Amino acid sequence: MERNNILSVQQSRDSDFIREVEEASGQNVSKCYQCGNCMASCVYTFAYDYPVTQIMRLIQLGQRDTVLSSRSIWLCANCQACTTRCPNNIDVAQVMEALRIMTRQADTVSQPDIQAFYDEFLRSVKTFGRVFETGLLPVYNMRVKKPFTDFDLAPRLLKKGKITFFPALVKNRKKIAEIFEVTKRECFSKAGKARPEPLSSKTDT
């Protein structure tokens, strides 16, 4: 991804963007004064197109397109190091999570492979009550068109009992699936959109 080193701030400024991010995240992004603690705490800064401190500043400057199309917000591991060290008590990790949600709503996801993993991970939890790695990874690899990725690790993981052929039995799986549906309704209600069709999965009590 080519990084934009020069931004025409006045021409690309979206004055509503900071308000939308603050409402979505519940954080006062305006309080950030770019001290750099978040950037210094982040182990993935080397891979980002914009360090997290610059992401915060770009939000303040109303640079919607630049922020929502950035690679950084999808590479964030949500480790909370930035949040822990923020002198203004901004939950920076929550801001990054809110931005990921906004990119999905705007259909501007810059890292579709990561989005696919999110989707399959949650689908696995919804279906089985907890993640079922043996089912998750093959489906994910097929979605991203890399069917044989890490295939050679399977025999060793099976031998050590790290993965199993069958999912663990979890009680009240139907209740867990209902949590997903309630959360989905609330998210789409806040976004002012119609409720989507539920994910097709069978759940048992």
Structural write-up:
The radius of gyration is 19 Å and the shape is globular. Residues 194-205 have low confidence and may be disordered. Helix 9 (112-128) packs antiparallel against helix 10 (133-143). The chain folds into 2 domains: 11-106, Fumarate Reductase Iron-sulfur Protein, Chain B, domain 2; 123-190, no CATH class. The chain has helices at residues 9-12, 17-25, 37-41, 52-60, 64-68, 72-75, 81-85, 92-106, 112-128, 133-143, 154-159, 173-190. The chain has 205 residues and is mainly alpha-helical. The chain has 12 helices and no strands.
Helix content: 40-55%
Strand content: under 5%
Count of separate DSSP helical elements: 12
Termini Cα gap: 46 Å
Listing every helix as H and every strand as E from the N terminus to the C terminus, the arrangement reads HHHHHHHHHHHH
Please name the fourth-level CATH homologous superfamily of the largest domain: Alpha-helical ferredoxin
For the CA atoms, what is the radius of gyration? 19 Å
Number of strands: 0
**Class inferred from helices and paired strands:** mainly alpha
Oligomer: single chain
> Which geometry do the CA atoms define?
globular
Low-confidence parts lasting 5 or more residues at pLDDT below 50?
194-205
Instruction: Give the count of structural domains.
Output: 2
Query: Based on the structure given, which CATH architecture of the largest domain is correct?
Result: Orthogonal Bundle
Major beta sheet, specifics? Answer: none
> What is CATH's topology name of the largest domain?
Fumarate Reductase Iron-sulfur Protein, Chain B, domain 2
